[in-house]
Write a structure and sequence with these properties.
The protein is an alpha+beta fold and 178 residues long. It is built from 2 helices and 13 strands.
Length: 178
């Protein structure tokens, strides 16, 4: 039995879940999300929890069991609490500022970069070297933060660039005179 798949999903107060032929829709205080799941998985509501069951012990059903449960749990958590990722900018003259709805980045190139986030994502810059990306969709928050990081990935010699908060950047020794 899948350790993750057999865990029940608690449904918080104010969250509505509808299951229709392979599509799960979750509506909560922060918004509405939906995900397409395998129609073979059986999703049952038992009181204030949601349980995902698999029809057999085949390899495909076992692999879909935990995935389906995690996808639905991410939707429930997204519409109640939301998700956020923090990025740090390291480097002299590197900075970010919020302009309008978008993000204006100065990263050592000959031109500044203006990034407009997709709908449902909010970007904040508490300091010029910190960026906070938040939203209700976990996948979209991760994709946007990876896109912003890709503008200037951390380099291994001085560690300059955009990195996730707490990310370890492996450093290399530079050239030596001799």
């Amino acid at each position: 039995m899948s350790r993750i798949g057999k865990l029940p999903i608690p449904i918080p107060q104010g969250v509505e879940i509808k299951v229709e032929s392979g599509i799960v829709r979750v509506k909560g205080p922060k918004g509405e999300l939906s995900v397409s799941v395998s129609s073979e998985m059986q999703i049952k509501k038992e009181g204030e929890t949601l349980v995902v069951e698999r029809p057999s012990d085949s390899i495909q059903h076992r692999s879909l069991h935990g995935l389906t449960r995690t996808l639905i749990h991410n939707l429930v958590q997204g519409v109640t609490e939301g998700y956020s990722k923090n990025l740090e900018i390291v480097g002299i003259g590197y900075k970010a500022e919020k302009r309008g709805n978008g993000l204006f980045l100065t990263l050592g190139y000959s031109h500044p970069i203006y990034f407009t986030p997709p709908q449902g994502i909010t970007i904040e810059t508490p300091t010029p070297t910190k960026i906070t990306i938040s939203g209700i969709d976990k996948v979209l928050v991760g994709q946007v933060s990876a896109k912003i990081r890709s503008f200037r990935k951390p380099e291994p010699y001085k560690g300059k660039g955009i990195r996730y908060e707490g990310e370890y950047v492996r450093r290399k020794a530079g050239k030596t005179a001799g």
